[in-house]
Amino acid sequence: MPNVELHKPHPVSNFRKIAIGTWKTTYDPSVYGTMEVQMDRAMDYLERWRAATGKKLTVSHMMAKAIAAGFARIPDANAILRFNRPYKRKSIGVFFQVVMTDEGEDKVDLSGATLYDVDQKSLEQCFDEFQAKVDAVRKRTDPALEKTRGLFKWMPFFLLNPFLKLVSFLSFTLNLDLRWAGLPKDPFGSVMITNVGSLGLDLAYAPLVPYSRVPMVLAVGAVKEVPVAEDGQVVIRKLMKINATFDHRFIDGFHAAVISRVVHQWFGDPDKHFGAPAAAAAPAASASDASR
After folding, report:
1. What is the pTM of this model?
2. What does the alpha-carbon distance between residue 150 and residue 100 come to, in Å, rounded to a whole number?
3. Residue 282 confidence class, pLDDT cut points 50, 70, 90
4. Would you say 27 and 256 are in contact if contact means Cβ atoms under 8 Å apart?
5. Which band of pLDDT confidence, cut at 50, 70 and 90, is reported for residue 161?
6. Is a pLDDT exceeding 50 seen at residue 285?
7. Taking the CB of residue 232, how many other CB atoms lie within 10 A of it?
8. Given this model, what pLDDT does residue 291 score?
9. Residue 288: what pLDDT?
10. CB-CB contact of 205 with 32 (8 Å)
11. Whole-angstrom Cα distance, residue 118 to residue 114?
């Protein structure tokens, strides 16, 4: 069984071949971009979703669904390189960075949780699965992750770089499933998301991680009220910056524009794209019945 389920390699343009030959694996092909998304309707949707379900939905959960829809719209961006040839992934995985404070507030660490087939799941399914994985990560009950942590805990510093390069080569270039060695299967998915807004930041760019082979990293900023010009009038709107770092060997301006349009569509009309908040209409219907 392979580490990542992939399609057969497909023909590429001359530019893509030149881009592949120009850079090594995510050491310097980074492109940076920021888009501003109006969040008034999205934040209203988030509050209604929380009220309807009793679950603490966040912008990060919504971002995962929206970016997965973007990758589904343009699958060429959802790829990895093997022997300098692009292979499209068969599924869309989203990696979330998770802050670990179980060893004390002065010993903050970062870990992660990955959801797979995000484009095929409902927002509530994504929320429930993500919460279960985060709980397992923070409680240190994820067996694959704990094996990896134990491995790195005792590894000498001088071996870190060659070891990570070797793991990346075996896992992605050779596409080997290394769970037998205590390494999780396809641990990073298609795109990484980090919520810098939770730190009070609205603008930051996260680096591409070479050994992850992930072609895009998103840093989601804080939602802020700002003055905006609309029809010649200044109004206050809620805006959020989404800061992207992407690998130019896979993703160029055309791909980024398609993904950007999808993200704007989803946050601009959340009820249409994310689906009506679960059970939101039930209380209203009950109240109506009771008044008859």
Report:
1. 0.82
2. 15
3. very low
4. no
5. confident
6. no
7. 5
8. 37
9. 40
10. yes
11. 10
Token look-up 């009820």 returns 271
- Would you say 241 and 38 are in contact if contact means Cβ atoms under 8 Å apart? no
Say what the pLDDT of residue 109 is.
56
Ranking 23-32, 49-58, 197-206 by mean pLDDT, the lowest is 23-32
Q: Rounded mean pLDDT of 62-78? A: 95
- Look up residue 93 and give its two tokens: 């995985």
Q: Report the distance separating Cα 34 and Cα 218, nearest Å.
A: 10
Question: 27 is written with which tokens?
Answer: 């050491």
What is the C-alpha separation between 129 and 132, in angstroms, rounded?
5
- Burial zone of 241 (CB within 10 Å; 0-12 exposed, 13-18 middle, 19+ buried): buried
Report how far residue 39's alpha carbon sits from residue 269's, in angstroms, rounded to the nearest whole number: 10
What is the model's pLDDT at position 243? 96
Instruction: Give residue for tokens 């037998």.
Output: 180
Q: What is the pLDDT of residue 256?
A: 93
Q: Which two tokens stand for residue 123?
A: 């927002």
DSSP string, the chain: -BSS-BPPP----HHHHHHHHH--TTSS-EEEEEEEEE-HHHHHHHHHHHHHH-----HHHHHHHHHHHHHHHSGGGSEEEETTEEEEBSS-EEEEEEEE-TT-TTS-EEEEEEEESGGGS-HHHHHHHHHHHHHHHHTT--HHHHHHHHHHHSS-GGGHHHHHHHHHIIIIIS-B--GGGT--SS-S-SEEEEEGGGGT-S---PPP-GGGT-SEEEEEEEEEEEEEEETTEEEEEEEEEEEEEEETTT--HHHHHHHHHHHHHHHHSHHHHH-SPTTSHHHHHHHHHHH-
* pLDDT reported for residue 222: 95
